Amino acid sequence: MSLALTLARRELRGGLRGLRIVLACLALGVAAIAAVGTLRTGVERGLAADGQRILGGDLEVEGGSQPLPDALRDWLRARGARVSDVVTMRSMLVAASGARMLVELKAVDEAWPLVGAAAFDPPQPVRLALDNGGLAAEPLVLQRLGVHPGDRLRLGDAHLTLRAALTVEPDRVATPSIFGPRVLIGLAALPATKLIQPGSIVEYRLRAALPPGASVAATEQALRAAFPGTGWRLRDPRDAAPGAARFIAETSLFMTLVGLTALLVGGIGVANGVRAWLVARELSIATLRCLGAAPSLVFWVCLIQVMTLSALGVAIGLAVGTAVPVLAAPLLAAVLPAAPRVGLFAGPLALAAGCGLLTAATFALWPLARALRIQGGALFRDALLPVRAWPPALLIAANATLAAALVALVVASAERRGFALGFCAAAAATLALFRLGGAALTFAAARLPAPRRAWARLGLANLHRPGAATPLMLVSVGLGLATLAAVALVQGNLQLEVAERMPQAAPSFFFIDLQNGQMDSFRRLIAATPGVSDLKEVPSLRARVVAVNGVPAERVHATHDTQWALRGDRGLTYAAAMPQGTRLVAGAWWPADYQGPPLISFDAGLARGWGVQVGDTIRLNVLGRDIDVRVASLRDIAWGTLGLNFTIVASPGLLADAPHTHIATVRAAPAVQGRLLTAVTDAFPNVSAIRVADVLRAIADLLGQVAMALSATGAVALASGALVLAGAVAAGQRRRVREAVILKALGASRAQIRAAWLAEFGAIGLAAGVLAALVGTLAGWAVMRFVAHGEFVFLPGRLLLTVAGSLILMLAIGYAGTAAALRAKAGPLLRNE
Hints:
By secondary structure, this protein is α+β, with helices and mostly antiparallel strands. 55% of the residues lie in helices and 17% in strands. It has 25 helices and 21 strands. Helix 1 (2-12) packs across helix 11, helix 2 packs parallel to helix 11 (295-333) and helix 23 (750-787) packs antiparallel against helix 24.
């Protein structure tokens, strides 16, 4: 080993010639993984550090649609806590001009904010902005309604004065404004609006700032013991922004897997680069063997050099991956509830380094083993008569162990380990598919009839000649293109869902918080408005899942994609007869005159995620009262129609007597939508109208931003594939120069040689594009089916672009390689030969 280290150190003094592609491939993949991991850690630490500000205190008690009792406030104050009440709901804000918009209303008391500071334009204290009928709104409200400070606005039945634009809301968790921007009023002004009626969709929250030294966990535990069975949800600064944290986790998982894809593509580049490097050093290796060097000595010299340079590539990737979050942090600070923390985080950097080194070792070991098994004389003859030799069994076992360690590292570091394991299995299957595709292309090229034109015959022969790099080149470009194809299909399906499928099935308006006494008048108004049709209405209550089969909601082992339904309030309705279009997958509907214990029909998807079956019991908290309901049936719900679908439909009886509101949907011609909105909100100030077109437009804008991120991540994998392809072309450059010189000496023209090589590259690019389209389609279907839970539509146009991109990429790189080979002078090479 000492001699191997000495020889390897001497060889490394010659520089990086021949291994630059290896460095670039590893650096790109490692940089992607390190950047994503560092950014995620920075965001999580930012959320943790600012958790108290984001939450608005040390502890939040969420009561859902039920007001929180004074006994809770007294209990907290007795322990030295400062408390603040916050009420949130949606409502219509109307300007004097008649312009109106849906807003997210937030009513706060005089103690708000407990932590942090609000800011207004023009600057003023919170009390001055909100007292005596004052109102503050985000700048978007002022812009769309055309109002200015001092103008009067109507909110429900109350007329309030716009005092300022709300520029900083310290406890606002950054979310897309899908249902409307924020409007802030004083809690004392809320009763005058008459927006809160029995059954209204409203959220009551109480924040508490504990005295210095008080334990949040101990206070939370004591509060649960003092108020058992309330169904309240308690949150502390560690869980201040659960939605943002989940989004960051999901996004980082996807980005990390894309980075791993780039690294796996780079692994092919490592194998190609090592193989080309060995070819360039075959004379020195053969000389060492002929001088008596043991095979193990040659192997260790080569392995030490490759892994040393691989470590350098990993170090470059770590440096780039650390720098990217520093540049991205200022941009993300504007869209996240807390600015990301910038720094060196050992965990993500160690993960990226481990993945990079394991990938380098896994893909380099096999080509390096060639130097271990081939004798010195064979190396001298290898240019004309390549020798195929399998590595020793020990090295095969070591290679398999390294691959297993890479998979174990990826799976162990992922939060969704099943998803990560599926990715690893799919990546291995994809690599095998492209390798088989390359072998099939070589087999077919050897058996196709010879074309008449000389350049076509030569190009076809290049695909199956001894030592042809056809399979490697196809794998090199194919995996990156498959990733890009999958991203394009997922992006296209998401956009199609919002742009075409949803609008065709969706109603024009949702009207919420309709009171029982308003329903007859509402029906008459709808019937009297021309161009409005398809009125549908259902009773609406708010319920919270407290327990499932006796297990508290917070301890239910739900799947990752169904945990959301265990948090917060859910919509609940009741019906005697089975609604039209309902598709039962288990159980049966209750009789229309059923009067027994409460039953429910439950969403089949959630039931699978929670392990719920027909006959099981779910405890619901409705209007502060716990009710045990038995699951009578499971329904398959088409959420994409945006119709009146509810996770839980209950039997009448007990719930029919509870205070509740109604939700209604209508279809309206575009020309009458404005008139309908004005008529309904003027006649029923407490009713909020949600225009579906506005919601879809907001979702489309959000998807546009997501699409940019998806395209960028797909481009990382494609860039890695392009690097690998360039390395594969460079690896065969020596052979192509020799071939060009011989062909020119035999009378072939430059145009014929170039056409032959471009035909070779074009065939490989076409095959890679077809296989990438197949793999991308399967991956896109899997993502839409199992991750997005949506319908998958085959989009041939996007796949054609993928195939065309494959051809263009192959031809461009092939042309660059042929141009360099054709410039080589014949004389020096022939004299050397």
